[in-house]
Amino acid sequence: MSEAPAAWVVAGAPGAGKSTVARLLLASVSPAPALLDKDTMYGSFVAAILAGSGRAPGEREGSWYDEHIKVHEYRGMAATAREIRSYGCAVLLSAPFTEQLHDAGRWLSWVGDIGGGIVRLVWVRTDADTLRQRLVGRASGRDSAKLAAFDQFATRMRLDVEPAAPHMTVDNRLSAPADLQAQISALVDSLAG
C-alpha cells in the first residue's frame, strides 16, 4: 500500500483565523485538499447535544464538553480524514487541536490516527487583544462562554506558547508584520522548493 497523501492541519485558538487561513491555503495548493472543518462537520450536532443535555448553548470548553463532545468530534474528524486519505485524496483539517499542539506524544498519536505520512501543521498565532476583538466581532453564540470568562479562556488556549509539534506559523495578530496572503504564499513556496 502506498503512503497516504499529505494532510494539512490548520490549528489555533477559536477565533484566531483558522477558517481564513484554510481558505487561503486551499486556494494556493494544487490539487486542493478536501476540507474537514470541525465547526462545519459538527456544529449543529454539538448544539443539539448541548440542548438535549441541558447545557448552555455557548459551552464549547471545559471538562464536561471535553468528555462528552470534544473527544467524539476529534475521533470523527480523524476517522474521516483517514478514510479520505486511504482513497488517495489529501485533506485539510481545521480545528483548535489545543491538546495535540502542546503535547508531542499526543501529536504523534493524532498523526497516526489520520493515516500517518506527511502531516503539515500550520499554527495560526494570535494574542489576547486580537482574539477578544475577533470573538466580539463575529458575534457567534458559540463564543458566549469564552467571552464571559475571557481571561480564563485565553489562558487555557496558551496563546503565547509555540506548539510542541513540528509546525509552520502564520501570524494573524493585529500587529502581524505581513498580511495573511503573503504569509501563505511564502509558506507554500517554501514547501515547493
Named CATH architecture: 3-Layer(aba) Sandwich
Q: Hey, roughly how much beta strand do the residues contain?
A: 5-15%
Task: Please bin the fraction of helical residues.
Answer: 40-55%
CATH class: Alpha Beta
Counted by DSSP, the helix tally is 9
Main sheet attributes: strand count, strand direction, barrel closure: 5 strands, parallel
Question: What is the CA-based Rg, rounded?
Answer: 16 Å
Q: How is the quaternary structure best described?
A: single chain
What characteristics describe this protein?
193 residues, alpha/beta, Rossmann fold, five-stranded parallel beta sheet, 9 helices, 52% helix, globular
State the gist of this model.
With 193 residues, this protein is α/β, with parallel strands linked by helices.
Q: Can you describe this structure?
A:
The chain has 193 residues and is of the alpha/beta class. The chain has a single domain, classed as Rossmann fold, CATH 3.40.50. The chain contains 9 helices and 5 strands. It has helices at 18-28, 38-52, 63-86, 98-101, 104-113, 128-138, 144-148, 150-157, 180-192; strands at residues 7-11, 34-37, 91-94, 119-125, 168-171. A 5-stranded parallel β-sheet has the order 2-3-1-4-5, with helices on both faces. It is globular. The model has no long low-confidence stretch (mean pLDDT 93).
